[in-house]
Amino acid sequence: MSVFKRNGMGNYYIQFNHNGKTYCKSSKTTNKRTAERMERDWRDEIHRIEELGERPRITLKDALNGYVQSKANTGSSVYAKNNLPAIESKMDTSVFIDELRDWDLNKFKSSREADGMAPQTIKHNLQAIRSAIAWAKDHGYQIKPLTFPKVKLNKHRLRYLSHDEEARLLADLDPKRKRPYRPDYEFRPAAENRMYQDNYDLVVLLLDTGARYSEIANIKWSAIDLENGIINLWRPKVRNESIIYMTSRVKDILTRRYSDRVSDDHLFTNLDGQQRGYQSKGIRSAFQRAGITDFKIHDLRHTCASRLVQAGLSLYEVASILGHTDVSTTQIYAHLERKDVSAKARDVLENLHRLTQGELQ
């Protein structure tokens, strides 16, 4: 029989042979007629796939889950997972991907806008759907060409620290500074002082390496070469590695931390001795106390990049340091380079003018 119960109990199972191959699965129902209908549908599907060359179908939900699983153990894993709740709350993910229409995507975009979501967030949501469809295509499922709605991003001023702001920030993060309602440094618990020191050290490393927060917060000692002053920085987001040469203050910090290390594995740890993860409250509070407004931790990376461009490095050189896989990503700093080029052009013209005046005299 093609439809049967194992030991005469529970749900019906479907089993049959096709072209010498055995197919078997649970119908997940105790209703025999339903199971028999499922068997016919399954046989028809296999016939269309193997005899007629049709591709199998997959629901949006299963494609999204497939895409998320494909990103496991990569820098994009959290990003992929974080988009699922929003998509599942605003779209019927039980539909087959080849049944999706352009207006489904436009309706999703409008719904997210009505909820007050930022354009960048909506763009990420749509990109997750696009990636799920691409995953389904790569795995042989039926898809239909779709036109995704465009999302206009708000233009924000590039934010980076002035040297005065950096001085105020580091003064506030100084572990030995006096803190309201707390004992002096020498009388505080060691764990509290270590927390303050971690925040200070982490900010300096971010400022002087231009790395992403997670790249430094979760870095291992095996990536640190103190003797040669090198950090072998692995970038999970783009899956590449950069060699970063230490500034003197970074080397001093790493030398001190190595001598006082609490872990032979990770440079920064949480209370359980594992990698630090995303703990940013103390740093964000320091921004506020130092009077640094409209500033995020990622802007420390912008600060490093902006200073390099202003000092004369090309966008291609800065892209290499930041680990950008496409120099177009580094174009947000282009206006700083143009300003520097304009100043250089002025100096060249001034020199030519003086030379011309000298020859005329």
Automatic annotation (TrEMBL):
SUPFAM superfamilies named among the record's database cross-references: DNA breaking-rejoining enzymes
Keyword Transport: no
InterPro entries membership: DNA_brk_join_enz, Integrase-like_cat_sf, Integrase_catalytic, Tyrosine_recombinase_XerCD
Key words of the record: DNA integration, DNA recombination
Domain Tyr recombinase, first and last residues per copy: 156-347
The keyword Ribosomal protein appears for this protein: no
Pfam families, per the entry: Phage_integrase (PF00589)
Gene3D superfamilies xrefs: Intergrase catalytic core
Name the UniProt record assigns to this protein: Tyr recombinase domain-containing protein
Organism whose genome encodes this protein: Alishewanella longhuensis
